[in-house]
Write a structure and sequence with these properties.
The structure is a single chain. It contains 6 helices and 13 strands. It is α/β, with parallel strands linked by helices. The N and C termini lie far apart (71 Å). The N terminus is likely disordered.
Length: 296
């Protein structure tokens, strides 16, 4: 009798940790499935930088450069979140759509665009979901900047008429992947008609027209309290050596416009003492703090 009772007690003692483990696992699963509660708006503007992949450029002759001119042929592909007291803005959304990036693996597009990190995962790590994004704007429509645009179809899309028209042209431009932004066709859209568009109305986040690389190419000015003013370049330049050597790529939509836009942005940088972050500058991008860290 005592032996039987002891056996039962032993079974119960084994079952309790197992049951507790199952309960904790279920709770963790439910927590992961639960919708995120959006973070409280920050007291001042924040700028988050995400790792959205890279481009392994083999032929750099279109950039009017030689291998001897550049430090590396690889280009970075960052994405950016601006968190403002009045809302949020995504600027450029990667090269490889999240759906093509396997867990723990590498997603590839067009053979030379790769990414190992999903943008939505990086957003969730800091408490944001795509539905929490107030505005989406893209420097331009090329494939390496629009990868995850469909994630933000619920945001208000800020775009020029010229850029929107080329995005939905028929036949589509070979320089983009229409299926990666198709949902934007029906998004709430604000057509930008001015050279400068003040997103939040206080001068801290301003979209600046800089056509040439594409019909409606633009750059983003962000005024940060501690970091100081920053301009996100889009593809105004690709390699920093383009800027140093004053080289304009042969593949621009309009090279004369590109040269004029560069001159205008350089004058703006001198006037505001803003930093220029060249988005495709691989070495420069490596030095930037990545999310969950931020600039403010």
């Amino acid at each position: 009798m005592d032996r039987a009772r002891s056996a039962v007690m032993r079974r119960r003692s084994v079952m309790k940790p197992r049951a507790l483990g199952a309960i904790l696992l279920a709770a963790a699963s439910l927590q992961c499935m639960a919708p995120l509660r959006a973070p409280q708006p920050p007291a001042s503007v924040r700028l988050y930088v995400f790792d959205c992949g890279k481009l392994d450029i083999q032929d750099i002759t279109p950039y009017q450069l030689t291998r001897a001119d550049i430090a590396t042929n690889v280009m970075s592909v960052p994405c950016f979140l601006v968190a403002h007291p009045r809302g949020t803005l995504m600027w450029d959304v990667g090269v490889v759509p999240d759906r093509l990036i396997p867990s723990g693996g590498t997603g590839t597009l067009r053979g030379y665009g790769t990414s190992t990190k999903r943008l939505e995962t990086q957003l969730r790590e800091i408490g944001y979901a795509p539905r929490d994004i107030t505005y989406l704007t893209l420097s331009h429509f090329h494939w390496d900047h629009v990868g995850n645009a469909n994630l933000f179809a619920g945001a208000t899309w800020l775009v020029s008429r010229a850029e929107r028209d080329v995005m939905f042209s028929d036949p589509p431009s070979p320089r983009t992947e229409p299926e990666n932004f198709s949902a934007l066709r029906n998004s709430k859209t604000t057509i930008i008609t001015t050279a400068d568009y003040d997103v939040f109305g206080d001068g801290s986040v301003v979209i600046k027209s800089a056509p040439g690389h594409s019909p409606g190419h633009q750059v983003l000015f962000v005024k940060l309290a501690r970091t100081g003013p920053v301009v996100l370049s889009g593809d105004l330049y690709h390699y920093p050596e383009e800027r140093a050597l004053m080289k304009v790529p042969t593949t621009e939509f309009n090279r004369e416009q590109s040269a004029a836009s560069r001159a205008a942005v350089e004058a703006f940088l001198a006037q505001t003492h803003a930093q220029l972050w060249i988005e495709h500058d691989f070495i420069g991008n490596e030095r930037l703090n990545k999310s969950p860290r931020y600039y403010d």
